[in-house]
Design a protein that fits this description.
This protein is mainly alpha-helical. Helices cover about 60% and strands about 0% of the residues. α5 runs antiparallel to α6.
């Protein structure tokens, strides 16, 4: 999340991997996390799509009006819920805590509302991911 924040705050003028390596070296004291790197890579890979999703679930605010730290938190949270196998409620709870630590006074409730609405709409249960809403139902043909 910190690397994404750094990358977007520099208006994408610095190479994404350079931002990630800077955070690893300066913030995480050289400790790398496979999970964090995977999440960062997925978030950048699906960045444009996740911006659209964020705009849809925080439609009362323009993307640019959302505090930059909240944007980074939400983009990572949305990406983790959509593309990783972390249970939705775990994702929501983790990002609420991150918002409490790094965000503004109302960040935690804002993050909770956006992520929980997304969870409800994509059909994820509290324990496992299910199919996306636009995926067709797969049924076996009894005549085949």
């Amino acid at each position: 999340m910190q690397a994404l924040f750094a990358y977007t705050q520099r208006e994408e003028t610095v190479a994404p991997e350079e931002c990630y390596q800077h955070v690893v070296a300066c913030v995480n004291e050289g400790k790398q996390s496979v999970f964090a790197h995977q999440l960062y890579t997925l978030t950048l890979q699906h960045y444009k799509k996740m911006r659209v999703v964020l705009r849809a679930y925080a439609s009362q605010f323009s993307f640019e009006k959302i505090a930059p730290i909240n944007r980074a938190i939400l983009l990572c949270g949305l990406t983790e819920m959509k593309y990783m196998e972390t249970p939705a409620l775990v994702v929501i709870n983790e990002y609420i805590e991150i918002a409490k630590d790094y965000g503004e006074v109302k960040s935690a409730s804002f993050v909770n509302g956006v992520l929980d609405s997304f969870r409800a709409n994509i059909g994820k249960s509290t324990d496992t991911a299910t199919k996306e809403p636009d995926e067709p139902e797969v049924t076996e043909d009894p005549t085949a």
